[in-house]
Amino acid sequence: MSPPVATETLPSTAMPTKATNGSNGHVKVTDNVKVLEDLADKWDTFKFDHIRESQVSRAMTRRYFQDLDTYAESDIVIVGAGSCGLSTAYVLGKARPDLKIAIIEASVSPGGGAWLGGQLFSAMVMRKPADAFLSELGVPYEDEGNYVVVKHAALFTSTLLSRVLGFPNIKLFNATAVEDLITRPSTSNDGKIRIAGVVTNWTLVTMHHDDQSCMDPNTINAPLVISTTGHDGPFGAFSVKRLVSMQQIDKLGGMRGLDMNTAEDAIVKRTREVVPGLIVGGMELSEVDGANRMGPTFGAMALSGVKAAEEALKLFER
Ligand code: 48N
């Protein structure tokens, strides 16, 4: 497929500023052991530096609105910060620090279904060879032969999230929902469309369009959207459902019954560009393809994210 073509002239977009107090854009962790020692036993005279409330307000709003401006034109938008979306973001952030990547997550807390294993149990199972991704992230695990176990799913998700948020070219907009897709006529003039960005709103606003009218959305232009919105939840399988309602695909295949071996191979292998400008990965893909579900094993989510990133990188080859 030819690389994404921006048919309209794009406004020049400043690259995200690098963190000022760290080398290569990562904030340097100060050595705080000394600071804590200095505080011990001096609590009676302890005092924070003085602040005016407006300083806090300006520190937050100045950055947020700068981010909205910077990422209004993004190179890639990832919809859904679950295990697949975050894995995609990690691979892209590491491979292409020159690309501006916006992650839109409807929930206040990113991570999707990966904070726990199955049935609210803590441990997370990943079948080999997904252990390679855990090693890449530095997540410790117990090796059980054909699979590995992370002692708590939150250890995987929090580590992955911290790596992703550490990239200066990635911005997470959480508590923000994608409530539509930006489209353009496809270059082949066949009545089909190309995806060219996302339509966003505060999630709480999106959930109340029925009881409060005229709450128009915002937008992010991007030549490529990667949708990993999962198979359930209030907004699950968002983009593929929207493709059906826009008559771009006939109907959803509907997720099939649980079969770990069939499901995980299929999800990874089929992660792909479903329509021009839209790559779908993770469990959202099971809804469009009618793939089986795998239940409480997460290797396919991580490797579907790796595959989605590789598909995206092909489109942005320098
Ligand atoms: O964790 P999920 O739901 O999705 P994946 O595909 O990253 O991981 C799926 C995985 O957790 C499983 O379902 C496991 C393997 N079980 C399988 C099985 O057989 O049951 O994350 C999707 C994220 C969530 O955080 C949603 O809040 C978010 O996407 N989201 C959205 N964010 C913004 N705009 C939207 N329209 C939207 N829809 C969903």
UniProtKB/TrEMBL annotation:
Location of this chain's protein in the cell: Cytoplasm; Nucleus
Reaction catalyzed: [ADP-thiazole synthase]-L-cysteine + glycine + NAD(+) = [ADP-thiazole synthase]-dehydroalanine + ADP-5-ethyl-4-methylthiazole-2-carboxylate + nicotinamide + 3 H2O + 2 H(+)
Cofactor note: Binds 1 Fe cation per subunit.
Cofactors: Fe cation
Pfam families the record matches: Thi4 (PF01946)
Keywords on record: Cytoplasm, Iron, Metal-binding, NAD, Nucleus, Thiamine biosynthesis, Transferase
Family, as annotated: Belongs to the THI4 family.
Protein name per UniProt: Thiamine thiazole synthase
Species in which this protein is naturally found: Stereocaulon virgatum
